[in-house]
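QA checklist item 7 of 12: single-chain prediction sanity check.
[x] sequence parsed
[x] length recorded as 578
[x] structure emitted
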Amino acid sequence: MSDEGGVLSGGLALPARMLNEWTYCERLGVLEWVHGEWRESGDTIDGAAGHRRVDRPDAEMPEAEAVDEALDLKTRSVWLTAEREGLTARIDLVELAEGLAAPVDYKKGHAPAGSPGAWEPDRVQLCAQALVLREAGYRVEHGIVVYLASKRRVEIDIDDRLVAVTRERIATFRAVAAAGVLPAPLRDSPKCPRCSLVAICLPDETALLADATATDHASGDEHHASAPAVGTGAIELRQVLAPRLEGFPLYVTEQGARVGLSKGSFEVTGRDGAQLASVRTRDTSQISLFGNAQITTQAMREAMDGGIAVCYHSFGGWFVGMAWGHHHKNVVLRRAQYAVAEDWQRSLAVARQIVRGKIRGQRTLLRRNHTAPDRAVLRELARLAAAAGGAAGLETLLGIEGAAGRLYFGHFGGMVKADWAESFQLSGRNRRPPRDPVNALLSYAYGMLARDCTVAAQSVGFDPYLGVYHQPRYGRPALALDLMEEFRSVVADSVVLTAINNGEVTPASFVRAANGCNLTQSGRKAFLGTYERRMDTLLLHPLFGYRASWRRIIEVQARLLGRHMMGELPRYVPIVTR
């Protein structure tokens, strides 16, 4: 069942289904109704399938005055709004008989054992539907919940006690929503693993970080947010979210290629009309077009309807921008983001952690991959990371980041295997255009990472163009660039080293011109394959100890940044690999 929202004179009508979610889990109710969060799962898809028949309106609902003892009628998908109660409901089925109206609500799951025979959230939702019918003038004494899995029809009396409980739930939900409070996550609850919003809610991760950062605050360690020790505190973290995101990116690098739509699939054709690729729309997470690749209006509309980002890159891989469907509804998060961006102290606190995480990532990559890591360099990077945690302002922080970058890229060549060292020398970072193969690879990888961080930021509900460390500039996704800083070395730089050291790109993979160096068509395909393998690789999450892909970890970090901005987490904790 899908309730519809209705605007009342006193505010937004509360959908009966959201009251069910609130009764089941207060945090879930706020995430769905106030923040506009939603994500499909196997359970929600099965539930929608079970509602197909009752979601189709049939006989028109008669006026209340026409319901008499002689009337015997059933009508499906009845949508009513009650202004005094502040409720709206799309009722699966209303049975009219003997002068009474009885709401019937279909549930996909099993009925509980014993009395009263229906779960409390379902009883409250049914009562809300009854209240809507009563305000419309219908006599309602009972309602019915049908549990499809149990094949049970449970009759519930709409008595004074249930009405009082339901009205109390409505008032409490409205008060919390008006206060802008996101209730704390459930702790070690069996409700979480099957919840469709578990990857958005992050109950165990949020509780663990809240405990750890609160401990840091109590000890006076303001500049160094610690990584929590998983399994040693009050929270035993479970892996309740899938290790990978659903779907796969579609890359179109062939110049003149076109993405079209045919029978539920994105079809990629070349200039000559020959088919280059065909992927199902439901298996596609994003579409990336490079240079002069195009997409048809029909394919674009399908992508927008399905929440698939269409990303545009220059021929050389620079991330230009993207098109998406209706923007995320989470106005609450964006208001919190704007408030943090306008508060230099709060912005600086986040920026410190971002730069600290970036420098520690650079140090880790050098320590792990350099043929003969210079201990003095590693000590200096550790010092700069610590200094970033206590920087007095953004200018100081930029200076610290720049010093660390010069040191890091000055020793980057030592991570290239001897077999390739002569062909892939790095004499400092340069860009737009890159002047050597290593810089060409770095720029290309950063373009891919900027896109993925922009997609993650926007999917969470952020405005990706308003950052806290990178300052706003027309056309620049500043917050996405903030988010990607801690992933530059562990993802993008690591991809570059893998591609070089494994011979996946060779000197023949590049074309040089007077104004720079770029990858060839075959070089781009090979490098994109290396990048996607890295993003899809499962690793132990540095903070939480479970296995997840880098693309999933980026999304989780974006959500945790949002939790901090909304005040749920005392501090943002960056990813730091060991």
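[x] summary fact logged: The chain is about 40% helix and 20% strand.
[ ] second reviewer sign-off
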